Amino acid sequence: MNTEYPPTEYSYWQQQAHQYLLQGDFYKAANLYEKAIQAEPDTKSHYWHLGLMLLLQEEETEAQTTWLLGMAEGEPEQVDLWTVELIKVLQTEAERRGEIGDYLPAWAIRQHIREINPADINNLLHLIGLSILLETYTGEELTDLGVIEMLGSEPPIEVDFDLLMQLLKNVLAYAPLQPSSLELAETCIKYVHDPLVFLELVIAAAVEIGYILRVPQIGISLLEVCRRLDVEKYGKTLNQLAILPHLASFHQNLGQYDEGIKIAKLCYSLSEDLADKAFANHKVLRGLMSAGGYWEEVDSFMEEHESVLELLVKEPLPLATHPAKVQNLFSSTFFFPYFEDRADNNRRIHNQVAQLCQVYIQNKEKEQVERYRDGHLSRKSQEVAGKRLKIGYISHCLLRHSVGWLARWLFQCHDREQFEIYGYFVGYRKTSEPLQEWYVEKVDKAYKAGFSYQEIAEQIYQDEIDILIDLDSITLDVTCAVMALKPAPIQVTWLGWDASGMPAIDYFLADPYVLPESAQDYYNEKIWRLPDTYIAVGGFELGLPTLRRDQLDIPIDAVVYLSSQKSYKRHPRTVRLQMKILKEVPNSYFLIKGSGDEESIKNFFNQLAEEEGVGRDRLRFLPEASQEHVHRANLDVADVVLDTYPYNGATTTLETLWMCIPLVTRVGQQFAARNSYTMMMNVGVTEGIAWTDEEYVEWGIRLGKDAALRQQISWKLRQSRQTSPLWNAEKFTREMENAYEQMWQIYVDQSNS
To answer: Phi-psi category of 623—alpha, beta or left, where left has phi over 0 and alpha has psi -120 to 50?
Structure first.
């Protein structure tokens, strides 16, 4: 015991040195440790702490000299022991710095640990994690520091699994497209002892990369890594059903339809419960219909799909069901209106599925739902007349998407003195998306969200949104789950697809034409009809056309029909009608444009043309235009556009009418079969509106043969730009705002009754 420092005083200076460290006064702390070394030169920890204080003063050479001095004249075994002690001192301070968010000193300390022990894998993992937090990570560190090589060595090294998983999560989030990120995921496989942790974080990263960043190929690679987990050890359900649906979607999104369909069918064969079967079958249908030429097979899968859903809705979903499974079900009825115009039956099943999912989510998040309900009641009792309403719009489509192109006029024209506009961007794209950024600038407050429905709903609730407008409907399950929690007192569906069918939605915005009067009988939501039209735009930007008739080997005097739609809108019954039109109009040609499997679509159309007696030489298959404004300019090559049925065009119809091209549309009973009808009524053109298959063919033939009638319609359409409600975005916005105010007044009046 050193006589110069009695125990109480010795304890005091140690505490004082630690206090100086916490206060950031490294100079005073160093002085104390220097005195301690003078008093106790054989106590090695004094050297380790003094060196640390010098390092924190950025005196690196002096720090290293101090540590070497402490280890001088030691035997190899002693030096090894002292090195362990030194590293522990440095690790303790590095961890403390990391916990308080002081990342740069933590990084510097761990760099010195690396110099002392370059094979310390856990320190290297911490070091890379800190470089991510400091935003200096480049993706090369995993290779340059030897991490990939160490993790890939045999036999496997000892590594902190939780730390490894945290780094993998951070690397995939920060540098998802770096090749080394995928390499890290691959090397992690043999260290996985908790497959749920690994699967959840890698699948989440694959979803982000594949759907949000739109790089499905890397998403596929990550999911294939997940499939390498020991199936026998972890079970087929764990390792397959969580992976295969996304894998199928990514292949389909890349246009690899056969592979996407095959994987979806594998998923269906592995599915045991009804929820899994429904979602897997939906993925099969998505692949078949997106490809465009498998309608006979679609028939059998659609029949099976409806049967599965009918069984599913008969009983509540157990609370033990995984939430992701339930979210998946929201979109399970998506393809019904593309397949058949059975408005009452389609809506019945759709509503039942939506209600089933809502009940489950509300039970699962019971505390959150009750807190929102109580909060709405409390706010309602304090509301004042004439307040500035808070309107929230939630969507994953406020970018280069049909919804994004059409909704911008409303955002542009909103009266900001009467309304405060909030935007909730689900799956916010971190890449360059000019239209998305336009929307961000147009709202008073933008919330750039991920895919957590609980977090998005909580933000909406905290923002005290009065009326929440859902622009996604069932096209995104996350949005459905948000709406199911009822974070706003009034909730409305508009524009994107049809109504979602959830009881949590109060209103569905329509107009006098897009739904028949009887529609309220099979809608859960209250149908709110705007005076003229449920959508209006101020026009469309046009580029320079890239299509010419001579390029397509079409005579100048020919009649050119056009259809530009996604593959799943091309129902064979309607295509047969289009071929009948073509057959009866001499010197006519049919331009076919839209996404899908090129070979499958060509075979599909060529076969139907042959069966209807139309030569294949009268069909032209066009590639997609790279930009929307070029696509619109290219519409000028057509004389007549032939609409699809039972699912009409919407954006494509607006573009056709804006370009003053006659349109033939078949009207049905469901919302999707009346889009073109309401738009044509609003521009004052009834020529081309067909209520039966026979009328569709008759109008197609008549417009093909009567050039004067086509010119007359084109003139009407051009004049409509100055008079039609369809092109009056300012008037439409006022009508939407009037609807919001009336909805709010009804809500307030109900509270006072």
So the answer is: beta
User: Is the sign of the CA dihedral 687, 692, 698, 704 positive or negative?
Assistant: positive
Residue range 552-608, pLDDT digits in tens: 999 999 999 999 998 999 999 999 999 999 999 999 999 999 888 889 999 999 999
Residues 594, 636: Cα–Cα separation, whole Å: 16
Q: pTM for the full model?
A: 0.89
Closest CA to 192 of 156, 223, 220, 224: 156
Q: How confident is the model at residue 74 (pLDDT cuts 50, 70, 90)?
A: confident
**φ, ψ dihedrals at 419, nearest 5°:** -135, 140
Task: Name the amino acid, one letter, at 462.
Answer: Q
The C-alpha atoms of residue 529 and residue 634 are separated, in whole angstroms, by 34
When pLDDT is cut at 50, 70 and 90, the band that residue 473 belongs to is very high
> Which has the closest alpha carbon to 70: 52, 57, 93, 94?
52
Q: At what angle do helices 60-71 and 76-99 cross, to 10 degrees?
A: 140
Residue 136 CB neighbours (<10 A): 12
Four-point Cα dihedral 507, 513, 515, 520, nearest 10 = 60
Exposure string over 105-115, b if 16+ CB within 10 A, otherwise e: bbbbbbebbbe
Least confident of 240-244, 663-667, 745-749: 240-244
The alpha carbon of residue 360 and the mean position of all alpha carbons in its chain are separated, in whole angstroms, by 22
Helix, strand and coil in the chain, % to nearest 5 = 60, 10, 30
3-state secondary structure of 385: coil
CA 186 to CA 172: how far, in whole Å?
12
Quick one: which of 628, 644, 642 has its CA closest to 560? 642
How far is CA 23 from its chain centroid? 45
Query: How much is the mean pLDDT over the chain?
Result: 93
Radius of gyration of the chain (CA): 33
Prior bond to 646 cis, omega within 30? Answer: yes
Cα–Cα distance measured from residue 150 to residue 541, given in angstroms and rounded to the nearest whole number: 55
Asked if 589 and 554 touch (Cβ cutoff 8 Å), the reply is yes
DSSP 546: -
Q: CB of 466 within 8 A of CB of 490? A: yes
- What tokens does 628 get? 């929307």
The string of pLDDT tens digits covering residues 238-292 is: 568 889 999 999 999 999 999 999 999 999 999 989 999 999 999 999 999 999 8
Most trustworthy range by pLDDT among 30-39, 322-331, 683-692: 683-692
Kindly state the tokens that stand for 31: 């002085």
Q: Which residues pair with 104 in a beta bridge?
A: none
Whole-angstrom distance, CA of residue 670 vs CA of residue 654: 19
The residue to which tokens 């087929």 are assigned: 236
With cut-offs at 50, 70 and 90, classify the pLDDT of residue 1: very low
Please choose, from the candidates 134, 123, 132, 124, the residue with its C-alpha nearest in 3D space to the C-alpha of residue 176. Answer: 132
* CA contacts within 13 A on the Cβ side of 409: 22
Quick one: how far is CA 425 from the chain centroid? 9
Task: Assign 4 a pLDDT band (cuts: 50, 70, 90).
Answer: very low
588 DSSP β-pair partners: 559
Residue with tokens 């002693």: 78
Contact 61, 93 (CB under 8 A): no
pLDDT of 346 higher than 80: yes
Quick check: 86 pLDDT over 90? yes
Work out the average pLDDT over 299-325: 92
Cα atoms in the 13 Å half-sphere on the side-chain side of 347 = 21
